[in-house]
Amino acid sequence: MRRLTTRSVVVIAVSLAVVGGSVAYAASVTSNLLGRAYGYKAAVQYTAKAEKGTNTNVSAVKRPAAKNKRIFIISAGQSSISSEIPAEGAAAAAKAIGWNVTILDGKLDPSIYGSLVSQAVAEGANGIVLDAVDCSTAEQPLRKAKAMGIKTVAIYAFDCNDPVGGDGGPSLISTCVNFDNLACDNLGAFTESYARDQANYIIANSKDKAKVLVLQDPEFTVLKYTALGFDDQIAHSGGSQVVATLDFTASDLGPKLTQMIQAELLKYPQINWIKSPYTYATIDGLEQAIANQPGKYKVMGGEGFQPELQLVQKGVVTAVNIIDSTWVGWAAIDSLNSAFTNKPTYPSGIGWIIADAHHNVPADASYVPSIPFMSEFEKAWGK
Fold first, then answer.
1. Which residues of the chain have pLDDT under 70?
2. The domain that contains 218 carries what CATH number?
3. What is the residue range of 277's domain?
4. I want to staple 289 with a disulfide (CB 3.0 to 4.6 A). Which of 125, 209, 261, 267 is the partner?
């Protein structure tokens, strides 16, 4: 079992402000770009589909591997399972495709991300993978990397020109993971859609009577997008409601977050559902906050790593929406290969799958996709 840390953050998710318990977003961000239907009937249909899983096979298009590449992976923090897994996945894929690879550990300290990009450049990187490292946290070094022709790809991170996570700068990231053939500037819509299915599960399970406390960590762009999608889907359900949104940061994880949640539950006694933004908020704050009231609250967990799936087995967490972060790491290397060879990116097949007490939780609480994505990538690369 992987080690835990109170500073761990998700890597599966607009400047925002809390207004009357819901989330208000910058007007420049367009919601529901993928045209998701709203309401209880639609939620039931989407949930049934998500319980079957939306993953598909990796594109079989032949795309031979670029030769003699030196790759650096900048991980937001290897002490976090949410950064470690995609970073290790990308490293494994880089080795499988035949490249030299080094992981640099950001230690969950955004102040050093730029220096790690500079280190990669100085050590002769041909390509850089940004794992939960937004462009805005390393803009100047990424400008230099782009000027030198170094290719870059992001995992759970967004470019400097992104309307939510950007800082108004230029596009500095070369390419992105191919999610269902969406353009890189529409990845926010894919991220929103993931959270919409979390909302749809809650709407369907509650028969559209959910009163939700949303836990939100606004430090990371990916979480701002998931908040946008979730909040919008609930707001248009016709019956369910986000009663309150509780903002916290990774530094609050532990007893402080537990106390913050308990205060919100006392303030809003009508709450019957709680949404966690990521696994470690679930296990290091939320779980403890509701421990003395078993069964009173239903919980939508985060990305569904093993510790959270164990809580599903125990009945503490009602459901999670699993996206395979190892697969995302492999897909990032596939996209980087396309950048090296001046080819388009190819569909990665990555989707998600809802897991609850009746669906998709294996006995060892460690979910493995049914699609053999690693061998499919290797076949496409001619390995």
1. 1-35
2. 3.40.50.2300
3. 16-55+188-322
4. 261
